[in-house]
Write a structure and sequence with these properties.
three-stranded parallel β-sheet, EC 5.4.99.18, about 10% strand, binds ligand C2R, 6 helices, Rossmann fold, about 50% helix, mainly alpha, about 150 residues, single chain
């Protein structure tokens, strides 16, 4: 993520990955504030064995695109909800990448963080089939929770 202030959003991705038993790391890396670290992080991602990078940032959210520019590891972009423009700035900074450097862009805020993690798990499940059963269970639990919910009179 671009800043520690994004952690409230991105920790939701971390919690999902943890619940699926997917090893991951949570780091602050910024295209603007730590540009050299960003290049190093992206360029060493493949040799360190990363399978995906969930990159969340707000405002002028150049982080996902710049990571994608420096690695062929899939980058999943999460627009963090900004105070000034409610995350529309983050979304538009991430989504409209030039052809050739893809960033898979998710919804603004916590929903996007959760779905980026679930998407990463779904991708990993092609390589680690035991994750399939956990994804099926996640979906079933979710359905059961909705069907079992009651409304206050
Ligand atoms: N968008 C970026 C990048 C980047 O794109 O590299 N680095 C930091 N930021 C964003 O600045 C916002 C405000 O950061 P602070 O709260 O630290 O001032 C955060 O949402 C962060 O993602």
């Amino acid at each position: 993520m671009g800043s520690t202030s994004d952690w409230a959003t991105l920790k939701e991705a971390s919690l999902i990955l943890e619940s699926f038993g997917v090893a991951h790391e949570s780091r602050v890396v910024s295209a603007h504030r730590t540009p050299d670290l960003l290049v190093d992080y992206a360029k060493t991602a493949k040799e360190r064995g990363l399978r995906a990078i969930i990159a969340g940032a707000g405002g002028a959210a150049h982080l996902p695109g710049m990571l994608a520019a420096h690695t062929i590891i899939p980058v999943l972009g999460v627009p963090v909800q900004s105070k000034a423009l409610s995350g529309m700035d983050s979304l538009l900074s991430i989504v409209q990448m030039p052809a050739g450097i893809p960033v898979a862009t998710f919804a603004i805020g916590v929903a996007g963080a959760k779905n980026a993690a679930l998407f990463a798990v779904a991708q990993l499940a092609r390589e680690f089939p035991e994750l399939d059963a956990r994804l099926e269970k996640f979906r079933q639990d979710q359905t059961d929770a909705v069907l079992g919910s009651t409304l206050e009179p």
